[in-house]
Amino acid sequence: MTTALRLYSHESANMPIQAPTAEALRPLMKSKRLNELKDACALLADGLSGFDELIEKYVQVEKRNRRDTPNRDCERFLEWLESKVQLTDQQRDMIVNQQSRHAVEFVALKQRIAHLRYEEMLSNSQPFQKHSAQHLGELVYLNPVHVWATFDTHAFIEDESPIPATVLFYPAAGSVRTAVIDEQSEQIIRELEQGPQKLRTLLKQTPKEERETFLEAIQRLVSLKILALAS
């Protein structure tokens, strides 16, 4: 039996493997960026006409910074949309919704320890009874991770809500939630942004004729996990 031997020259055996050129990698990098951007901005896909084409155009004209995460690239895309595209009020609300959710994720990273403490507080707290005296001596804490925004349409809120609506984005139970905030609730939250206060103190600061609605607001905010009470 004859065995055929394949001969290699010394030169070919030692030839270095050439790395792909930047030109060859460019289509792959563009495809990767497009997919990451579409995932990061997925909430816009259904409501923004020509979503895929707009992302394609953005990627063509705006270079990605090396340090940009997909979320940051999405934020830059949203900023680009606002400056380059004629948007409807509903589409602007879509952008506000996406931006606010990204902002919550960013704040959650910065306030990670504070938020873990808040979640522990929530797990140990009892249901709020608005006429229970035991709550008066407790401290009222605000969810440390929250972002304010305004909606000009009912695209993301109930039709009964007044427009424009002040809304709060915040994390709870592993997801980002949105709540429409009325004027009295906003006053409570703004006050607690300065730090926790005893319920008794907050109640004393409230005019007598508004105390019942104040307690109802506290009860609603506690049920939404925006506030928590602890001794």
SSE layout:
Layout: H1 10-13, H2 22-40, H3 51-61, H4 70-84, H5 89-110, H6 112-124, E1 139-142, E2 147-151, E3 165-172, E4 175-180, H7 183-192, E5 197-198, H8 199-204, H9 211-223, E6 227-230
Antiparallel strand pairs: 1-5, 1-6, 2-3, 3-4
Helix pairs in contact: 2-3, 2-4, 4-5
Explain this structure to me?
The protein is an alpha+beta fold and 231 residues long. The protein folds into two domains: 27-86, no CATH class; 113-230, Alpha-Beta Complex (Outer Surface Protein A, domain 3), CATH 3.90.930. 49% of the residues lie in helices and 13% in strands. The chain contains nine helices and six strands, in the order H-H-H-H-H-H-E-E-E-E-H-E-H-H-E. The chain has helices spanning 10-13, 22-40, 51-61, 70-84, 89-110, 112-124, 183-192, 199-204, 211-223, and strands spanning 139-142, 147-151, 165-172, 175-180, 197-198, 227-230. The strands form two sheets. Strands 5-1-6 form a three-stranded antiparallel beta sheet. Strands 2-3-4 form a three-stranded antiparallel beta sheet, covered by helices on one side. Helix 2 packs across helix 3 and helix 2 crosses helix 4. The longest helix has 22 residues, at 89-110. The termini are far apart.
Name the helicity range. Answer: 40-55%
Question: Architecture of the largest domain, CATH level 2?
Answer: Alpha-Beta Complex
Task: Label the structural class.
Answer: alpha+beta
Query: Uncertain segments of ≥5 residues (pLDDT<50)?
Result: 1-9
For the largest beta-sheet, the strand count, sense and barrel status come to: 3 strands, antiparallel
Strand order of the largest sheet: 5-1-6
The CATH topology of the largest domain is given as Outer Surface Protein A, domain 3
Name the shape in a single word.
elongated
Please report the first level of CATH classification, the CATH class of the largest domain: Alpha Beta
**Cα-atom radius of gyration:** 27 Å
Topology order in helix (H) and strand (E) letters: HHHHHHEEEEHEHHE
Ends apart, CA distance between termini = 91 Å
Mean pLDDT: 88
Tell me how many strands there are: 6
Number of separate structural domains: 2
